[in-house]
Amino acid sequence: MDVTVVWAAIIALGLLFYVVLDGFDLGIGIVFPLFPEERERDLMMNTVAPVWDGNETWLVLGGAALFGAFPLVYATVLSALYLPLVAMLACLILRGVSFEIRGKASRTKHLWDLAFIGGSTGAAFFQGITLGAFIQGIPLANGEFSGDAFGWLTPFTLLTGCGLVATYALLGCCWLVAKTEADLQRRLHRLVWPLTLVLIVFMLAVTIWTPLQEPDVAARWFSAQWFHRMLPAPFLVALCAYLMRRAARERHHTRPFILATSFVVLGYAGLLATLWPYAIPSSVTLWQAAAPERSLTFTLKGAVVILPLIMAYTMLGYWVFRGKVRHGEPHYH
Amino acid sequence: MGPSGFITLLAGWVTTEVGRQPWVVYGVMRTSQAVSPLSAQQVGLSLMAFVIVYFLVFGTGIYYMLKLMHAGPAVAPDPGQENQAPRAGRRAQPALV
Predict the structure, then answer these.
(1) Which residue in A24, A190, A236, B70 has its CB near the most CB atoms, within 10 A?
(2) Are B36 and A75 within 8 A, CB to CB?
(3) The pTM is what?
(4) Could you tell me the sign of the dihedral formed by the alpha carbons of A66, A72, A75, A77, in that order?
(5) B38 contacts in A (CB within 8 Å)?
């Protein structure tokens, strides 16, 4: 286990935490249009008001770790995906501001509602595009990005964009199921299974399209080494789907969220299996893109101290604000 | 007195960023060598996006701050006066927009 793989694992784990944690924050904004009543919208935002800030910082951790540990990836991939990433940032800014201002606004509250919905959906969509464009690969020449400004805009990336919106919608809906009660929770429970089906359709579409488009990926998936490792994945997804249907029917509180997270983890594992051992598919391996080993070791010593601290205070925050959120409770800012 | 903090911050940043040109790593690498292969249109588009978003966000923020300053500090209700009519011109909790 060399330090390059350790850093790749840290970045992969950090991004997984981001997808799950900010996934449900953004997901709340994505399902907002289905719940137009103002009191309910206030309640839904209150469920994440104390934790959404910290959730978003996992993206910063992933990006900064990429800068430190795999500078070639940071330089080339972020240049190639410049436009979708800038769009995503603008959406995240609008979403973040709407969290704070919406609670205080009276005349313009509906505008900030739109900012919240648009920002959340846009951020999810552009993150999905970034993911799809990354899977497609980045054209390189002499260690520099050599493609054009719109290489990220293809039918495949539009599919992954919509797929990630569906993922976050399910995560958000399941989080709200866990944190609300009474009539609102009942209506959310009715959403869970349809959203799960939509997600499964997208997962299927991406799983079929990726090897068709990328012959290297197809070769790897069906090779002797990987095939038997990836074979359980579709069965696990089917199992999660069955359990999710039962959980929604029987009105479980937290089980939908756990199962939604399982879907994300399964999809993410498939993604990692697709990418290994490349840092930039399919041209640059992890070891080619990594910073010098001395840098990696030095920064690893810092990370080993900081990361457990971050996990600890994050868990403390969720534990302090555990339980259902009810109408009339004070704003958690 | 109020904006002096902002002015000092900006003065410091301008000194740092302009003063080190044409180097990005002083004495080792020039800025022109460190530039990414992005077209001017892309970077210009992102600059425009940032300007628009920041005008929106800071504009709203400054409007809110001015409104808060105009409303004055929130007055804690005196227990003996709670049942009387509120004093004219003073709201206990300033609303935004």
Answers:
(1) A24
(2) yes
(3) 0.88
(4) negative
(5) 79, 82, 149
